[in-house]
Amino acid sequence: HKNHTESSLTGVDFRDELEAESNQEYSTYIYGNETLRLLREHVAEDTEDPFFLYFASQAVHGPWDAPEYLVDYFDEQISRSRSKLAAVATVLDDTVGLIVDPSFFQ
Question: What burial class does residue 42 get, using C-beta atoms within 10 Å of its C-beta: 0-12 exposed, 13-18 middle, 19+ buried?
């Protein structure tokens, strides 16, 4: 999912507080990077306070849009529509893998 509306409407989809965020990076990367930033910040505080994070991704919701290099990779193996889903799921899986990697906390 890209950070913009694709229809007769125009605008950006993301906000940071009340500010429109015009980052055009793939949204799974945006959410993943911000999650990792928050985790790093919490670990750096070295606190015993609990930490709760809800990671909700747009990744597998249509329309499927993923980095083209991954879609091309899967195109060689399966149909175009399935290759888009495979690419989206791969980015999500890689991103969640980084978030839950226990070495991150060491």
Answer: middle
What's the token pair of residue 64?
Answer: 């499927």
Q: Report CA torsion sign: 38, 43, 44, 45.
A: positive
| Token pair in block for residue 42 | 């919490």
Q: How far apart are CA 81 and CA 75, in angstroms?
A: 9
Q: What parts of the chain have a pLDDT lower than 70? A: 1-13, 105-106
What are the DSSP calls for 25-73, one per residue?
S-HHHHHHHHHHHHHHHHHHHT--S---------TTSSSP---HHHHHH
CB within 8 Å of 43: residues ≥ 6 apart = 104, 105
